[in-house]
Design a protein that fits this description.
The protein is α/β, with parallel strands linked by helices. It has a domain of 123 residues: Rossmann fold, CATH 3.40.50.11890. It contains 15 helices and 8 strands. The strands form 2 sheets. Strands 2-1-3-4 form a 4-stranded parallel β-sheet, with helices on both faces. Strands 6-5-7-8 form a 4-stranded parallel β-sheet, sandwiched between helices. β5, α11 and β6 form a beta-alpha-beta unit.
């Protein structure tokens, strides 16, 4: 059951590259970022275009392995491979690339990446519950602001920053409204369609245009709900996918789950519900950004209680039948946290839990499908 608006989304995604080229020709800067911890509002306030750069495809990994260890996280290898092979237009367009000191692998990869583009590294504290950590992070954001002002030649004042916060809040809440439609049982949208929409709209240079397109997609899905149309039945197992981020090209687990008869109704990761938040519009802008971005519940944080709280909310609100926890090979923080996550899901919520560790290649797809089918039998 293909959405009519998907064709429009594909056309807009193709047009987006030309929009960025035209914007650069007019003097606007492009700021590339690798992590959800980067406060994109600052780039928007500087009249720059923020674009995500995390690698989600397998093709550049071979080139990356000429430099990076083969047993490294595929997301890191893909990201570096795109830079090394000059095959990502968004990296090519970037006038400044922002890295965050999240995991050790990314930190060291950023050192090598600085040979390809000007870099600025945000030193991310890995505790969220102390005034000292927040003060440090606020200082990092102030430094980032100064770097952006120098890069773009544009001043970032409180008025511009407040407007950027309102715009980005609107984008995030529009995406949340889209994701929340899958709370309907059965869901009116597949996990692959949801992932595709979230992924492609994340690159849009024209934020209002992207928001308007998502609203149009929402309207079509609401009409589908009113007609009680769905690609699934009421008995289709409803899966929450947690763990590492996924995107087009690194979506094999979403495909395997849905081809095996499940529906991935929500994503508890930084490509999904982790970005369903609003920055406080009443507080002083830099302080509001510091507080909100530091609270993002990634496994690099210790402790990471926020992830468990978010997961509980999603399990209840999306009527989840089972939780699948995805870890990329070499991602030690998510791999270690999987033990606590499995215990939490089974003991607190009484739900089936499946932890899967894989990479971007298709070589283990058959084995993964066998494990998924056995997991779905437990649910049924």
């Amino acid at each position: 059951m293909k959405l009519n608006t998907m064709d429009k989304l594909n056309q807009a995604a193709e047009q987006n590259l030309m929009d960025i080229e035209n914007a650069k020709a007019s003097g606007r800067k492009v700021i590339g970022f690798y992590c959800l911890y980067t406060p994109m509002e600052l780039a928007v306030a500087a009249d720059a275009i923020p674009v995500p750069l995390c690698g989600t495809r397998n093709e550049p990994i071979a080139a990356a392995e000429e430099v990076l260890p083969r047993n490294f996280c595929p997301l890191i290898k893909s990201s570096f491979g795109f830079a090394a092979t000059d095959t990502c237009p968004y990296f090519r367009y970037s006038d400044l690339v922002i890295g965050d000191t999240t995991c050790d692998g990314k930190k060291k990869m950023f050192e090598l990446l600085s040979e390809y583009r000007p870099m600025h590294i945000l030193q991310l504290p890995q505790k969220q519950d102390t005034k000292k950590a927040l003060a440090f992070w606020r200082d990092e954001i102030e430094t980032f602001k100064a770097v952006l002002e120098k890069t773009t030649g544009n001043e970032i004042n409180n008025e511009k920053l407040a407007a950027a916060i309102r715009l980005m809040n609107k984008e995030r809440m529009t995406k949340k409204a889209l994701m929340d439609l899958a709370k309907t049982r059965p869901s009116p949208i597949s996990g692959m369609d949801l992932l595709t929409i979230m992924f492609r709209t994340g690159f849009f240079a024209d934020k209002p245009k992207g928001i308007a397109l998502i609203i149009e997609i929402i309207s079509e899905i609401i009409e589908r709900i009113s007609r009680e149309e769905s690609p699934f039945s009421i008995r289709t197992p409803r899966i929450l996918l947690t763990g590492v981020p996924v995107g087009l090209g690194s979506d094999k687990m979403v495909r395997v789950l849905e081809e095996s008869g499940a529906n991935v109704v929500c994503f508890e990761n930084c490509s999904g519900y982790k970005q369903a938040y609003t920055v406080d519009e009443e507080k002083e802008p830099l302080q509001a950004l510091a507080e909100q971005y530091l609270s993002i519940p990634c496994s690099v944080m210790s402790p990471n209680q926020g992830r468990f709280e978010l997961l509980s909310d999603m399990i209840r609100e999306f009527s989840i039948d089972g939780v699948v926890d995805l870890t990329w090979q070499g991602c030690h923080t998510y791999n270690v946290e999987a033990y606590s996550m499995g215990k939490f899901v089974k003991d607190k919520h009484g739900l089936p839990y499946l932890h899967l560790e894989t990479d971007y290649s298709e070589s283990d797809t058959g084995q993964l499908k066998i494990r998924v089918e056995a997991f779905l039998e437990i649910i049924r």
